[in-house]
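Researcher: Re-running this chain for the archive, since the previous output was lost when a drive failed. Same request as before.
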Amino acid sequence: MNEPTVQLDINQLCELLTTFDQTSISELTLKSADFELMVRKGVSVTDRAMTGIEPTIYPGPLTPIVTTPAPVTHPTTISLSEAVPSKPAPATPSPPPPQADTKGVAIVSPMVGTFYRSPAPDEPPFVNVGDRVSIGQTVCIIEAMKLMNEIEAEVSGRVVEILVQNSEPVEYGQPLMRISPD
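Model: Regenerated structure tokens:
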């Protein structure tokens, strides 16, 4: 007997997990020749550690899909056709494209961490608004995992705006300051 093939794209998987989250079902297992997907509600990190599955930590912000744990009950098996609604999910509007900024070139954070304007608390900032910078000049530090990473200017010009306060957490790709190029 041939096993049915399960093919899911990322949108269908997200829709399946959203639907799963909205039901009283506590466990869902999908198996095919190519993959196996098991989703459980209400499993804590200690439960995962006891089963030999270690959680993986990914850099950057993540948005959990299943956020409401349910009490663990006996597993319920459902078919894929029951879990995925037959009508397509309404399309979510995409965010508007970023507008061109006339204030200059943004220096963005290459990592998640903490922004520092100076090399030490008792020292002056690397740059202030109005200062001239050259390519390769250190303009700030991002601390990540106890490592101080110097961020350098990629263009020469004048600092027109500093967008982050000292000691403030920053995200990957977040604009830190703007430089008006020469």
